[in-house]
Amino acid sequence: MDKQTIASAAATPAIGPYSPALAVGDFVFLSGQIPLDHEGKIAGIIAPDQARKALENMKAQLFEAGLSMDAVVKTTIFLTNMDDFGAVNEVYAEFFSPPFPARSTVEVSRLPKDVKVEIEAIALRG
């Protein structure tokens, strides 16, 4: 099985031993995208602003793979406070259109760099 690492210079750099995205066959698996700029600094203070940056990073990784947000079939959103669910949903809806990807949203106690939002995805080529 061939695996291809995808890493956009316009998105968050990996902050550990992982690939920002990995293409395997017709699938592209995107690691959790957090709201870091290309220099590794946190972008945004509140959850909706952080979600927007995380989704912009996702979009950049997908672009690097030759895909758009329409290729995403599944996402998982990690929030440090479920009270941010509605506001993050509003931002999420700016990046996706029907049919929306399947999705899970979970509250977690802590995320890398103490950000408020992390979003991972699976996209399908073709």
Question: How would you describe what is shown here?
Answer:
The protein is built from 2 helices and 6 strands; from the N terminus they run βββαβαββ. α1 packs parallel to α2. The protein is an alpha+beta fold and 126 residues long. The mean pLDDT is 94.
Overall body shape: globular
Give the CATH architecture: 2-Layer Sandwich
Strand portion: 25-35%
> Could you spell the SSE succession in H and E letters?
EEEHEHEE
Distance between the termini: 18 Å
Based on secondary structure, the structural category is alpha+beta
CATH C-level name:
Alpha Beta
Please tally the β strands and state the result.
6
Average pLDDT rating = 94
Low-pLDDT stretches are: none
Helix-residue proportion: 10-25%
- Biggest sheet, in brief? 6 strands, mixed
Strand arrangement in the largest pleated sheet: 1-2-3-6-4-5
Quick structural summary:
With 126 residues, this protein is of the alpha+beta class.
Task: Describe the secondary-structure layout.
Blueprint: E1 3-6, E2 21-24, E3 27-33, H1 47-64, E4 72-79, H2 85-95, E5 102-107, E6 117-124
Parallel strand pairs: 4-5
Antiparallel strand pairs: 1-2, 2-3, 3-6, 4-6
Helix pairs in contact: 1-2
For the structure shown, list the relevant keywords:
about 130 residues; alpha+beta; 60s Ribosomal Protein L30, Chain: A; globular
